[in-house]
Amino acid sequence: MRAALPGSGTLIDVFSAAPGDVDTLRKLLLGTRNDSTIWTGTAGQDKAVAWSEPIPLAKVKAVARANNCTVNDVLVASAAGALHDYLQAHHARCSAVTFMIPVNLKPVDVTLPDNLGNEFALVQLELPTDEADPLRVLAVAKKRMNRIKHGHEAAVAFRLQETIAGFNRQLYEASVDLFTNRTIGTLTNVPGPPMPVYLAGSKVAGIVGWAPVSGNQPMSFTISTYNGNVVVGIACDKTLVPDHETIVDGFAGAFERLLAATSAVSS
């Protein structure tokens, strides 16, 4: 087991309540909350993937409407709930984890641009993993996602990496390793076509993807929507998370608890 990653502790918790741009500075200088636990360690060479059964998108939207939040907030909170269940099953503790969240910096345009290529930043999202109440987890996820949206973290992170890359390759790679190892992996939400699509005359049954894991990251979550359903793909390091299927199976259970809690409050 390696020591707690940079950013774990009371000082981080205090600054995480600061306004958007102050919190951005805190993340860059002090780091984020990412407690050591059963999936912390040195990654091996073998990786594995798994994916969930489809969850009706209409159910997710209903929970989002009832809680005055976004679909992404609901899905992110469900991911935190799945990790909470995994920790509980292994009698392990972990107060919070940090994920890298890709943020697109290009304006959405239905036309094909003259120059192709990605332009996105990776922001850091801290999620509670020691909270059993799904509505409280959702409230935290919503608050922290809103802080990212209303701040300049994505633009600052992108320009910082762009500037460092202009110096030399070694410095750039060192900075990538620093920010990568402050997180347990990538968590991304990929909206797909809302209607069925066809390939060579055959209907595409579903879409699933897996964000890569790098460095000593134990896992990544890729949440995909397609044709009215949500599917979660998880990629894991087999050394650090040998029973990764239980995490992706727990996603549906975490969402169902959130759905039940929402219904109980609304009734």
Automatic annotation (TrEMBL):
<dbReference type="GO" id="GO:0019432">
    <property type="term" value="P:triglyceride biosynthetic process"/>
</dbReference>
<feature type="domain" description="O-acyltransferase WSD1 C-terminal">
    <location>
        <begin position="117"/>
        <end position="258"/>
    </location>
</feature>
<dbReference type="InterPro" id="IPR009721">
    <property type="entry name" value="O-acyltransferase_WSD1_C"/>
</dbReference>
<protein>
    <recommendedName>
        <fullName>O-acyltransferase WSD1 C-terminal domain-containing protein</fullName>
    </recommendedName>
</protein>
<dbReference type="GO" id="GO:0005886">
    <property type="term" value="C:plasma membrane"/>
</dbReference>
<dbReference type="Pfam" id="PF06974">
    <property type="entry name" value="WS_DGAT_C"/>
</dbReference>
<dbReference type="GO" id="GO:0008374">
    <property type="term" value="F:O-acyltransferase activity"/>
</dbReference>
<dbReference type="InterPro" id="IPR045034">
    <property type="entry name" value="O-acyltransferase_WSD1-like"/>
</dbReference>
